[in-house]
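Data card: per-record layout.
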Amino acid sequence: MATYSNRIMEVQGRAWLFGDDIDTDVILPGKYLVLTDPKELAKHALEGLVSGFSSKISEGDIIVAGKNFGCGSSREHAPLALKYAGVGAVVAKSFSRIFFRNAINIGLPVVISKEARDVIKEGERLSIDLEGGSITREDGSRLIVDKYPAFLLEILKDGGLLQNLKRRFGKEAKK
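The structure for this 175-residue chain is written out next.
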């Protein structure tokens, strides 16, 4: 899985382009909900859109999509499948609210950009500065993206909500 520095949150990878309304059943078909191992879920990520997606993606690659990414059900299997497939971040014009929060909770960065899908090319190398709120493209140009509130950035830095709570309550318990 992608790794993130505690000081500088940066994701680097090549772009995989998708359209609007990519729902959770497309991200991870419902027939795989019986699986509990995230590595097994990952094998089926986006398989209906890109045959063999999980074997084609490189660690840290970035999904760039249109509006309403992650619509559909509230299950967190979909962002888990993406994270364990090696997706470093998802950039979209907009997200389903529950998908956005589920992704943050498991430590998968999701970035809102109104223009990324319209200008980024398939396979283009990208670098996302999560703290600074920008995407640097292969040609050196930059896109400004919505910044995270401090508390969400902290959750991502810790690798997800559970790790964040363990860190926070672990420190408080020692006082």
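Known properties of this structure: Residues 161-174 form the longest helix (14 residues). The beta strands are 10-17, 62-65, 89-92, 110-112, 125-129, 134-137, 142-144.

See the next section for split statistics.
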